[in-house]
Structures
1.
Amino acid sequence: MNWLARGLTGAILGSLLGCGGLSTQGARYLKQSEPYQLQLPQFQQQLKQSSQLAPEQRVKSIQQLLLQVQTQHQQLRQLAPPKSVLAVHAELDALYATMEEFLKACLTGSGDMSDPKIKKLAGQWSEHLDKLQIELQKLESH
């Protein structure tokens, strides 16, 4: 899966504020949502590390990761995005929801990519990441 480059939101935010292309509320939302975006590569790394553990340890690791993702997702949903960044928020929200489903599937199924449900969710996860990048780039081009 390809991940958001660190600082992408910061770079976009800086250019948008510099040219006046984003409302104050939109800029505030992007700044508030940045930690949720920057957390994504860390989640991927944790998942990768857990896949190398013994089954019992893997389950505990994935349960902890699921709890982290759920907590972050609840906090993300507390943000109030203005209309100008609603598409970014929708993709970020969908991404977190997909991550939750993916982790739950890892706990109930085989836990590897041979499981069709996990494979499907991994594809959706990747699609939402791509869409999130596209939405962020659209903001930059305005």
2.
Amino acid sequence: MIKLFCGEDRIKAKKAIADFLGSNYEVIEGGELVPTDLPSLFLGQSLFEKTRQILIQDLSANKPVFDELPKYLDTPHKVAILELKLDKRSSTYKSLQGKVEIRDFPLPKDPNLNLVFGIYRTAKTDGKKAVAMLEKIKSEEDPIMFFGLLASQAIKDFSLRQGIKEKRALKELSDLDIKLKTTSFQPWLLIESFLLRLSSLQ
């Protein structure tokens, strides 16, 4: 069974994924897959269990692999696919509609929304200034939701200009997402570190 979880509200999406997969599941980065990985991922069994619980993150950004997804709808495993945004005009999305459950988790409207996007744009040229801007609003923001807004802006940038810097920013954000979920560092420190690095990405 495959379910798609889409949207910028990562907190609600992750809770829904945990309800679907349970607390013990494999995490796969979609950007690192190639089409030949898919038979073993969707149809292969582990040594100890016939069925697996799998979370695949950001698969749609890897178009050659995402386009193969409809071939594996009969997987015996429980597979959750987490996306910040899906292109609803794509043929792959249309072929999945009605065949898999697709759940959307948009962020609630944030009065600081434009300022958040301004912080991201500023960080692309001046990380220190962006961190100073963040200091003014972070007491009113949730760091995970703020991260989701940064990621959505990076995806928008990538859709407009698929340059090396835009690709590196998405990779950095993917790494940041993992760190936010797996380390004990203060979330804001990790986000500020990303903002400081962004202008130097090549």
3.
Amino acid sequence: MKNPYTPLLAGAALAGLLATPAHATLFAYEGFAGVSDGPLAGQASTGGLGFVGNNWVITNGAGGASTTEAAGLSYPGSYPGINTSIGGNGRVTGVTGDNAFLALNFDVFTQPAIDGASQIHISWLAQNVAQSTTDYGLLDAGTRTTFNLAAEYPRNSGIRINNTGGTSNNTLGTIGNSGNWNGSGGGAPTQSLFGDGEVDPEVVDTWGAFNFNDVNNIFTGNGGTQAGPGSAFYNPAAANYDGVDHLVLSINTATSTYNLQVNPQPDGSNDGELVWVHTDGSVVPFEFRAFGVEAGNDSSERAPGDMVFDEIRIADSFADAAGFNQIPEPSIALLGGLGLLGLARRRRA
């Protein structure tokens, strides 16, 4: 007997295919729903997807002053998608003599699904909130001004692609604010310029990638020849405390090609973009076992790393991670195997 609902079911299936990418899957989500102010270490996943049953574990140091915060972060005003922020947020903070490296492991179903996907997209909210060296009390303002000491950068902070899992600190690399982007190459600071009309003392809130490549640090900025803000060698995202950013990292898992966008838009524009192939003499295979975060201690006479983060989404399509479609999609398919860095800086009008 013919099923009278067959045409309706077929129509619904077709509509579903048109509305969403084929086989699109949201693998994991953490929004810190219902958390209160408290320690990050030992905090159980609250997202209900991909991380269920796991706690935030310490992978290096003693956790520093890392916490959960009930306030939560909000998507920036430029965000064009349908994702909404719920609940609280995480904060990873180093302290004197204590690094803060923590991770949230994937469950036994999610991890093999991620490793089997042809592409992975990671979306999250974050802001570097560490103090400047001067504000932290390690450098007096008079000395800084006299000698034009521009680099007020704190220690390292960011999110990590942990490739072993458990309590291991092994990682492919970090997306964040690298602690050693100081002023190399003729004295020009890599993150900021003192007296460029912005905050004084200047504190950087910008993004890049480090520990991914033979060249160690990868970022759209500097080879020591930049002329400051507006030049082709300056940082990919706006410097200083410009608020919470929405970041999306897209990865071609077969070729280990990565694309990082800061505040991406549907038309392909963004506040900064970085594309690279992960190499270490040869291409490094992509492996993702846990979502990690890090903040360095106050060594090297700098303030400890300190970053707030929230709304972690990991999917096999850009739309499922970011909450909107982007045309053109991130450049992760065509660069695989080229073995080179592509640097681009596109600022929205």
4.
Amino acid sequence: MTVMQWLVGLPPVIGGTIFAVAAVVTGLGAYSGARLVVGRRAIFENSNLALQLFRVVATLLSLLLSLTFADVRLETSAIRDSVDAEAGLLSDTFKNLDVFDSAKAETIRAQLVEYIDAVIEDEWEAMRRGEFAVEVADLFQNLEIAVMTLETTTPLQEELRRRIIDDIDAVSDSRVNRLTKITTRVPVFLYVAFLAFLWSNAMLSVFTPRNKAVVFIGAYCAFVGIVIYVILALNNHFEGVGAVTPDSLEYLSSYIKGM
């Protein structure tokens, strides 16, 4: 587990506070440094220019954060939808195996339940740690092989076998879709947004730290820090705020076992 995964895996109040404090320290550091170099010698006209430029940079910063948030949110929703679709495909497979009155079909049904439980109990926990569960992958491979070797005796069984194979192929695609998101990377736009954040604080250096100006700048920095925390937490798709959970698979497992 990386430091970033650990941070975004903290309770939201703690994680948000840490990022807010870090943003305040960083932002005020940029403000102080720029004030020391150029801010103290700025004349009135330069102050007005800096204020206008701050508005431009701050607007660009908000756009970058908005785009990054929307991109991460869409990606999380896509993973959640694929998990729900995976549960539906596995449910159809389990139901279609009813038509096959054979020991082989019953074995596949048992393998199917074993695979679902392994995803819920083992694979999801591994994904939260940013790891790959090899044993679950082996279970799914065995399930694929078993489906491919399922024997048919009637045209109806042949058609259902074809559908089962198609469903298992779709499940495989769903697995790839979520397993490729195990490794958490900082969105590229966020690096540019951080640069804009430092730049915007530097623009404010033309204003003297009086009349609670530092408080207002600190509040601005804290809010940006909280927004960045939320984006990073959402980008860690299986842990923390907005994490994708195997709820649909858990429901399917309970339903099958209750039949």
